[in-house]
Design goal:
mainly beta; Pnp Oxidase, Chain A
């Protein structure tokens, strides 16, 4: 079956099949990624930026990737600055996600790698007024 003119192709001119369940939005959002501690010690955390997100998954780069493997669970807080009733509010979404893919090392900083996660539950809102 031939691909139509709108189907993306790989380098070998093979049609690229989209396997995502949700459409992603290309957006830069400040996030904090945390690796839960298995031994009760302080979890590792890092502030970084998500490069795209959907209702069920997201992708971001992190230097914590050396400590992450597919199947691991990470905790993510997503900062959503919004204007609400004349006051600025810092709305945060909290979500846990399972790592489904590790991307290649970042060109600018090879100690950082991309991480794709799927959400284990719907993101939960937390609001703090400024």
């Amino acid at each position: 079956m031939a691909a139509d003119k709108n189907t993306p192709l790989t380098r070998n001119q093979v049609p690229l099949i989209e396997r995502r369940k949700n459409q992603r939005v290309e957006v830069k959002l400040d996030i904090e990624v945390g690796l839960p501690s298995l031994d009760g010690s302080t979890p590792l955390k890092e502030k970084t930026v998500a490069s795209n997100i959907s209702p069920g998954d997201m992708y971001f780069e992190t230097s914590l990737a050396a400590k992450i493997e597919p199947g691991d669970v990470v905790e993510v807080e997503i900062d959503l600055p919004v204007r609400w009733t004349g006051l600025f509010a810092d709305r945060r979404l909290q979500v846990r996600g399972r790592v489904v893919r590790l991307g290649p090392p970042a060109l600018e900083d090879p100690s950082r790698r991309g991480i794709a996660i799927i959400f284990l539950h719907a993101p939960i809102f937390h609001t703090a007024l400024a």
